[in-house]
C-alpha cells in the first residue's frame, strides 16, 4: 500500500508540473526510489516510457487548450515544452492527426490520452520463488542492436532480431564460443530519457576467448535477483516479467540497480510446456 501511495503522489506531481520542466530526479524522489528504478518500473507497469507518457499528456492538454481558448499556437507550444512551432506541429499532427490550428475548428475530433492511475491488486494465490545471487563481472560475446523504446518499438523489434539471428546462423555460431552453452538476451544499456535500448544476443565466454568477429562487453559484478520461468516461450517469461514488476518489486525492499539485465536460455525446446529459463535483474537493497 505504501508503494501505491508513493506512485500516486508521483503521478499527481507530474500532472501539476506538465507546463514546467519535469526532472526525473524530482519525480523519483517523491516515489523514494532511484531515477532508473522509477523509469523501469513505470515502463513495465504501464507499457509506456515515462518520456512518452509526459509527451502524450502534454499534447492532450495542449489540444484541449487550443480548442477552448484563443491562445496563440506559439504560446501553447512554448507552454508545453516545445522550442519551435514546427516541432510542436509535427508532434501534434502525429498525436492527433491534424495541425494545431485545425484543432480550433468547430466539431473537430481530437484524441485524448488520459492521466494514469494505479490501483491495488491483491494476488495471493501463487507464490513467486526467487534467489539472490552474487556474481562477479563476466565477459559476453554477441551481436547487438540499438532500438527505441518509444511507442513499444522494442517489443516488436527484439523478437525479429532473434528470428534473424536464428535464421542466419548467428545463434549457432555464438553457442560454440560459450563457456556454459546458454544463450543470453541482454538489455545491455537503457537510456530512459533518450528512449534507447542496447540489446544483445550473446553468450558468457572466457575473458580470453576469441570473439571471431563478434562484439564483446563486460557485464559488471552485481547482486542479481534470479527468477525461474517454466513454460512455452514467449508467454511464460512475459508473465514472469509482469509479476516481477507488479508484485515482487513493490512487495520487497529491493530496487533495480540500474545495470544490464538479461534472460538466460538453456538448451531445449522453448515451446515445450516444461521449458525452464531464467530472468536475471541486478538489484540493491533500499
Automatic annotation (TrEMBL):
Which InterPro entries does this one have? Answer: AraC_E-bd, Cass2, Homeodomain-like_sf, HTH_AraC, HTH_AraC-typ_CS, MarA-like, Reg_factor_effector_dom_sf, Tscrpt_reg_AraC-type_HTH
Q: Highest taxon of the source?
A: Bacteria
Q: Which Gene3D superfamilies match?
A: Homeodomain-like, Regulatory factor, effector binding domain
Q: Which Pfam families does the record match to this protein?
A: Cass2, HTH_18
Keywords attached to this entry? DNA-binding, Transcription, Transcription regulation
| Domain (HTH araC/xylS-type) ranges | 8-106
Q: What is this protein called?
A: HTH-type transcriptional activator RhaR
Which source organism does the UniProt entry give? Paenibacillus auburnensis
Amino acid at each position: 500500500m505504501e508503494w501505491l501511495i508513493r506512485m500516486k503522489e508521483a503521478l499527481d506531481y507530474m500532472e501539476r508540473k506538465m507546463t514546467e520542466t519535469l526532472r526525473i530526479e524530482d519525480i523519483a524522489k517523491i516515489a523514494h526510489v532511484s531515477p532508473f528504478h522509477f523509469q523501469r518500473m513505470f515502463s513495465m507497469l504501464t507499457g509506456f516510457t515515462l518520456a512518452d507518457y509526459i509527451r502524450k499528456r502534454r499534447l492532450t492538454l495542449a489540444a484541449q487548450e487550443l480548442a477552448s481558448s484563443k491562445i496563440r499556437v506559439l504560446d501553447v507550444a512554448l507552454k508545453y515544452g516545445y522550442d519551435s512551432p514546427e516541432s510542436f506541429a509535427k508532434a501534434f499532427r502525429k498525436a492527433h492527426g491534424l495541425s494545431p490550428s485545425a484543432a480550433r475548428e468547430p466539431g473537430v475530433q481530437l484524441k485524448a490520452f488520459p492521466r494514469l492511475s494505479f490501483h491495488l491488486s491483491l494476488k495471493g494465490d501463487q507464490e513467486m520463488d526467487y534467489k539472490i545471487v552474487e556474481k562477479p563481472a563476466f565477459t559476453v560475446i554477441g551481436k547487438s542492436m540499438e532500438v527505441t523504446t518509444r511507442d513499444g518499438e522494442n517489443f516488436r523489434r527484439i523478437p525479429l532480431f532473434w528470428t534473424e539471428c536464428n535464421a542466419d546462423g548467428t545463434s549457432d555460431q555464438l553457442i560454440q564460443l560459450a563457456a556454459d552453452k546458454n544463450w543470453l538476451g541482454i538489455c545491455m544499456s537503457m537510456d530512459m530519457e533518450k528512449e534507447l535500448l542496447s540489446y544483445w544476443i550473446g553468450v558468457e565466454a572466457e575473458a580470453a576467448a576469441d570473439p571471431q568477429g563478434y562484439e564483446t562487453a563486460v557485464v559488471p559484478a552485481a547482486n542479481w535477483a534470479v527468477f525461474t520461468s517454466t513454460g512455452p516461450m514467449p508467454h511464460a517469461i512475459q508473465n514472469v516479467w509482469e509479476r516481477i514488476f507488479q508484485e515482487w518489486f513493490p512487495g520487497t525492499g529491493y530496487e533495480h540497480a540500474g545495470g544490464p539485465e538479461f534472460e538466460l536460455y538453456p538448451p531445449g525446446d522453448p515451446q515445450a510446456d516444461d521449458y525452464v529459463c531464467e530472468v536475471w535483474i541486478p538489484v540493491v537493497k533500499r
